[in-house]
Design goal:
Helix content: 25-40%
Largest sheet: 8 strands, mixed
CATH class of the domain at 456-557: Alpha Beta
CATH topology of the domain at 456-557: GMP Synthetase, Chain A, domain 3
Radius of gyration: 23 Å
Structural class: alpha/beta
Distance between the termini: 56 Å
Number of strands: 27
CATH superfamily of the domain at 456-557: ANL, C-terminal domain
Strand content: 15-25%
Shape: globular
Length: 558
């Protein structure tokens, strides 16, 4: 039996094995600067910065950190949306040999304090709007210095001057913190020397502590090495055979502070010598304007982004036909969304899969060749994957048998920071146990049927929420939806659908239930339907189904 059937399904031109460069990401930035010095690396609200300019600023920030006394292995935190300082500080921290950790702007003060204390980061680069939280936790976390940037620091004039007026009108302006702990990122950077810095770290040393979402408990720091990050970026690169270096433009509407945006957006673009369009917060019109202006070709994203573009009434005003390829991650890509987006753009939109513990990408559908709707695709080059039984995790399952997906490859983490017991639960004999339930077909394509914890038992039958959501998305009135298992006295659990209708549409719960009866087995049909204006999602757009379930459980206790 072929233990890697997926190799035969790879796109023409995708290699079956891969040798990875023995260079860290900052060293790769040096290499790309040597080749594409005058090419724009960053586009941001009309400002463009070349590879040469970015690389010099990275050296300046690395020198600033070294002058501050930060040594290899020390931790430095980023608390930023997508903006030039995020890119500069990201590579500057790594070039100085320090370990990077990225804070989620949606975190509460207690969650932020947990990550700072757990990682040991005493230095932070932050957006001004996040300084109130840092003030709250500074003493508790022993912070030594916070370099602060405003979002308009790198805006072109006159937009730079107009932004404060707009921010004050919208009540999002934050006065500059007066405490000596807070200092200007841009001013300090400008004073720092441009002397080239040679990164002192080796490939197998830690580069990043990337914290998992924490929606199901206390967030954990995933230890990713320089080798992990470089390997996953190059795995992305070879998945797009024939893509020329030094020519394309990438859209970064997903945050760099999330592992997916970092790797499938910024790092992938870097190893291609490409340009990146930075979007601090997703706005569909802003994104459409940027696609039109910069002729964006590669657009990694999530389903919610593609849904927003599909349903934007003004999409016809913009030329989006430059789009060539998009990978959708952070959750399922439903068929109706995929078809409509490809029709609008003429580009390819394929579903991929990953998790923070794997840098994060492990699987993807072929971009140009055979793909399978509703499946996460094939294991990346250099990645092994298989299905094992859920109960013991030791028995290899056959084609199309459902069990837990496990993976092995150069992108898999070293473990959880200071959590050996939890590491041992998910890393076994070199395999990463993902916690996702799925199967592999005869061609080596993998499918995720759901998370272990999201599978619902209805009257003894297994129901996977994704099946219900696929049916709901076939309804032309539905803009967004999620299905969840909620407690039921008779059935144990029952399926409830939460739906956002398209603007101007109306529907009744019974109408939705009757629609589902046509498309689903009887036991999968939702028993309840609730209409909402929005659904809970994290910063990357992944649906937070667990929050809805917790709401239902709280109702029962009242």
């Amino acid at each position: 039996m072929n233990d890697r059937p997926w190799l035969a399904s790879y796109d023409k031109g995708v290699p079956q094995t891969l040798e990875y460069p023995q260079h860290t990401l900052p060293e790769i930035l040096n290499d790309m600067t040597g080749r594409f010095a005058s090419r724009s690396f960053i586009h941001f609200f009309g400002t463009s910065m070349t590879y040469q300019e970015v690389n010099e600023k990275v050296d300046q920030f690395a020198n600033l950190l070294i002058a501050e006394g930060i040594k290899p292995g020390d931790r430095v935190a980023l608390y930023l949306p997508n903006c030039p300082p995020c890119v500069i500080a990201f590579f500057g921290i790594l070039r100085a040999g320090a370990i990077l950790t990225q804070l989620n702007p949606l975190y509460s003060a207690s969650e932020t304090a947990h990550q700072l204390k757990d990682s040991g980061a005493k230095y932070v680069v932050a957006l001004d709007r996040f300084t109130p939280i840092l003030k709250q936790v500074a003493q508790e976390c022993g912070l030594k210095k916070v370099w602060v940037t405003r979002i308009n620091d790198y805006f072109p004039i006159p937009l730079k001057w107009l932004y404060p007026l707009k921010a004050k009108k919208e009540k999002i302006w934050v006065d500059w913190p007066v405490e000596p702990l807070f200092i200007s990122f841009k001013k300090e950077l400008e004073k720092s020397p441009k002397t080239p810095v040679q990164s002192p770290v080796k490939m197998d040393e830690t580069a990043l502590l990337q914290y998992t979402g924490g929606t199901t408990g206390v967030s954990k720091g995933v230890i990713l090495t320089h080798r992990n990050l470089v390997a996953n970026a190059y795995q992305c690169k070879v998945w797009f055979p024939g893509l020329p270096e030094g020519e394309k433009v990438f859209m970064l509407a997903i945050p760099i502070f999330h592992c997916y945006g970092m790797t499938a957006g910024m790092n992938f673009a870097l190893v291609m010598g490409a340009s990146i369009v930075l979007v601090p917060k997703f706005d569909v019109i802003q994104v459409l304007k940027a696609i039109d202006k910069y002729h964006v070709a590669i657009f990694p994203g999530i389903q919610a982004i593609y849904v927003a573009i599909n349903n934007c009434s003004q999409v016809g005003k913009y030329n989006v036909r430059s789009i060539e390829a998009c990978i959708s991650g952070a959750g399922p890509l439903h068929q109706e969304v995929q078809k409509k987006f490809e029709g609008l753009t003429g580009g390819k939109l394929v579903e991929g899969y990953g998790l923070t513990e794997a840098s994060p990408v492990t699987h993807c559908n072929p971009v140009y060749g055979k793909r399978k709707i509703g499946m996460i695709g094939l294991p990346f080059v250099g990645t092994d994957s298989k299905i094992v039984d859920v109960e013991t995790g030791k028995k290899d399952l056959k084609v199309k048998e459902i069990g837990e997906v496990i993976v092995k490859g150069p992108q898999v983490m070293q473990g959880y920071w200071n959590r050996p017991d939890e590491t041992a639960m998910v890393l076994k004999d070199g395999w990463l146990y993902t916690g996702d339930i799925g199967y592999m077909d005869e061609d080596g394509f993998f499918a995720i049927v759901d998370r272990k914890k999201d599978m619902v038992k209805v009257g003894g039958e297994n129901v996977y929420p994704r099946d219900v959501e696929e049916a709901l998305f076939k309804n032309e009135k539905v803009l967004d939806c999620v299905a969840a298992g909620i407690p039921d006295e008779r059935l144990g659990d029952k399926i409830k659908a939460y739906i956002v209708l398209k603007p101007g549409q109306t529907a009744t719960p019974q109408e939705i239930i009757d629609f589902c009866k046509v498309h689903l087995a009887k036991y999968k049909v939702p028993k309840e339907v609730e209409f909402r204006e929005a659904l809970p999602k994290n910063m990357v757009g992944k649906m937070l189904r667990r929050l809805l379930v917790d709401e239902e459980k709280a109702k029962l206790k009242k």
